[in-house]
Each structure stands twice: as C-alpha cells, then as structure tokens.
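As a warm-up, study this chain.
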Amino acid sequence: MPESPVPEREAVPGSEAVPEPIPARAVDYRDLVESADSMPVLRPSDVRAARRRSASDLVGQVATWFAVVWLPLGLIRLFQHFPPDGPGEVLLWGGGLGLGVALVARLVSLRRRSIHVPLPRLAAFAARNRFVYQPQAHAPSLPGRIFRNRHSTRLSITHSVSHRAGQFQFGNFDVDGRNAVGFLAVKLDAALPHLFLASRPRAGSAASPFAAGLAGEQEVDLEGDFPSTFALYVPQGYGVDVRYLLTPDLMALLVDEAGDYSIEIVDDWFFVYSWYPLNDDARLVRRLFEIMDVVAGRLDRRGVRYRDERAPVTGRIAGRGRRLRKANAGGEIAAVLSVLGLMAGIATFCFP
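Now compare it with the structure written out below.
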C-alpha cells in the first residue's frame, strides 16, 4: 500500500540521479514557426481508420506470405507439367522467375522507402538551447508500447530533439517509413506501475488506437470527468496505487494540458503519444515542454514517495505491476487460420 505523502523529495535507493525538469519558460522558442492554425487532434474517424489499417496490414502480411510460398510452388508444378524443350526455354523460365523476384523486391523497397526532409528551424532551436537534433536515427531502446514492434525490422525516429543528459527526447517514430506518430519521452526519478491513459476523441467514444491489444478488464474509471477524456488501464490489483499517484489535481492537469494525447507510464519513463507527427510549430513544442514541466514534473514528485509493498526490494515494482496484460490474440489467430485454410483449399483444387 502506498505511504502517506511527506513534504520533502526523497531519493529512491539504487536509482540514478535525473536532472530537474527544464521549466517551459526557460526554453527559447524564437527559431520555431508560430503557426496560426491549431494542431490537429485525434478524431473518431481516425480511430476507425486505424482499425481498418490494422486489419489491412494483417491481410497484407498473410497475402505476402501466400505469394512468397505458393508462387514458387506453382511455378515448379507448372514446370513439371510443361518441361522446357531445349536451353532456350530454360532461359525463358529462369528469366521469368528472376523477373518475378525482382518485381517483388522492388515493391518491398518502394513500400519501405521514406524521405525525411530536415527541419532547419527545429535544428536551430535545438542548437540555441543546447539540445541535440537528429533528422533521422535508429529507434531508441525505450520501454514504451510504440517502440516494441515485433513485426518490423526497420524502426527509426525522425526529427528527434533530445537532452544531452538523457532527460527527455521527442520526435516522430517511424515503422518501415510509414505510420509515423509523434512521441515525447521523459525520464523519471523512480519506477512506477505500468499505466496507460488512452485519449478519447470525444466523451464516450472509443479510445485511441495506441491502446489496442491491452486486456479490457484492466480498464479503471476514476472520479469526475476523467473517464470521458482518458481510458485508464491499470495492472490488476493496483487500483489503490493509481489513486495515490493520480491525485485530483494531477488528473486535472492531464485533462487540461495533455487531453489530446495518450500517456504511458512504464518503469521510470513518462511517454506522450500523438496520433500526428510532430513538427517545428512553436506552440506544439512549447506545449511539449509544458507537459514535461508541469505534468511529468508533478507526477515525478509524487512518484518518488510511492512504495510498492508487494515488491521485495524498496524502490522496485512487483512483477505483476511492471507490465499491463495483453488481450487474447484469438481473433488474429482465427483470421490467419482461415486464410491458411483457404490456401490449402486452393492448393488441393489446383494440384490434385
């Protein structure tokens, strides 16, 4: 059970010292663009589009494996029925097969190719404030959900701005050169239970696609209007703990300052996810630093006083509180098995 609050900021035994949050007012934004338009926010149509794209990606992956496996088998079977007559036909068969492989490789390369145009204003902003700007870099080893993609080998970040001491980083996370989403990562002083706050486009609507795959029974409703802004996922048995961490004043800050974004707290990291890529808009960057300063800073001051009494070591989180459970993947398995059954039926019909 969490301890009662104490007035001073305590250090967690065994934790590394993290620099104090940078006040948003201390950052110089003069090199950035002052846009007249507000930043787009997540809409219900975006949630529906994300679900369709997820289903399309699954079908596309299965179709790709279908082509990779069955196209060579079909050519071999055709070759057996109509053996080449002479070296000329052998070259024709080989050339056709090579052309097919080349076309598949070209399609894959086009699908994965992405062009990242540097943002000179963002680079100048980083230089003025002694941050580090990278137009493109390898994906960092962070524990956030969006960084743990098991279906891709080409993960990268673009337009990254980070603190030299590793206190924060923000930019766009890219999967195979597509589906870029904005993120902010802030280092905390202490490890906390895994929490996910999925933003809702409007009250009562479906939660952000960032929460896809989390077991629904972990969703918890807190007091007031908070559930109309966020769907909150908490490890089972940690309901009391989350009410200690997310005090009414912190919940109000989350709604007011970060209600358009999804939030993840995992290990000693605080993440903010945007459905839209980040850019060099001054208001957007200022808002990120305000979230970092006000919201993450308030949570951090609360978090260093938190103790998980289930953990055998002070300052650690018990195993069941370290990660949220994933939903049952029965639907995806059923879809794959259905497609495999269809492939088997086609194979039986074509090659009796």
